[in-house]
Amino acid sequence: MSTPNKTLNVGDPAPDFTLKAIGLKEVSLKDHRGKNVVLLFYVFDWTPG
Length: 49
Hints:
By secondary structure, the chain is an all-beta fold. The chain has strands at 18-20, 26-28. The radius of gyration is 14 Å and the shape is extended.
Protein backbone atom coordinates (compact mmCIF):
# COMPACT_ATOMS: atom_id res chain seq x y z
CA MET A 1 0.00 0.00 0.00
CA SER A 2 1.37 3.38 -0.96
CA THR A 3 0.63 6.65 0.79
CA PRO A 4 0.94 10.03 -0.90
CA ASN A 5 3.86 12.24 0.10
CA LYS A 6 2.87 15.32 2.07
CA THR A 7 5.10 18.17 3.12
CA LEU A 8 4.76 19.03 6.79
CA ASN A 9 5.09 22.53 8.14
CA VAL A 10 6.37 23.59 11.54
CA GLY A 11 3.64 22.87 14.07
CA ASP A 12 1.88 20.22 11.96
CA PRO A 13 1.18 16.95 13.76
CA ALA A 14 3.27 14.06 12.48
CA PRO A 15 1.36 11.35 10.61
CA ASP A 16 1.13 7.98 12.33
CA PHE A 17 3.79 5.46 11.34
CA THR A 18 5.30 2.23 12.62
CA LEU A 19 9.03 1.45 12.72
CA LYS A 20 11.10 -1.53 13.79
CA ALA A 21 13.26 -0.70 16.79
CA ILE A 22 16.21 -2.55 18.26
CA GLY A 23 15.34 -6.24 18.49
CA LEU A 24 12.84 -5.77 15.61
CA LYS A 25 10.12 -4.71 18.05
CA GLU A 26 7.51 -2.64 16.23
CA VAL A 27 6.94 0.82 17.67
CA SER A 28 4.08 3.02 16.50
CA LEU A 29 3.87 6.77 16.91
CA LYS A 30 0.23 6.48 18.02
CA ASP A 31 1.42 4.51 21.07
CA HIS A 32 3.21 7.68 22.25
CA ARG A 33 0.51 10.24 21.43
CA GLY A 34 0.61 13.16 23.87
CA LYS A 35 4.28 12.60 24.73
CA ASN A 36 7.39 14.21 23.31
CA VAL A 37 9.04 11.92 20.75
CA VAL A 38 12.53 12.27 19.27
CA LEU A 39 13.62 10.14 16.32
CA LEU A 40 17.32 9.52 15.81
CA PHE A 41 18.79 7.93 12.73
CA TYR A 42 22.40 6.77 12.91
CA VAL A 43 23.83 5.88 9.52
CA PHE A 44 25.78 2.62 9.78
CA ASP A 45 25.19 2.31 13.53
CA TRP A 46 24.73 -1.26 14.79
CA THR A 47 26.18 -2.68 11.61
CA PRO A 48 29.33 -4.77 11.33
CA GLY A 49 32.43 -2.99 10.11
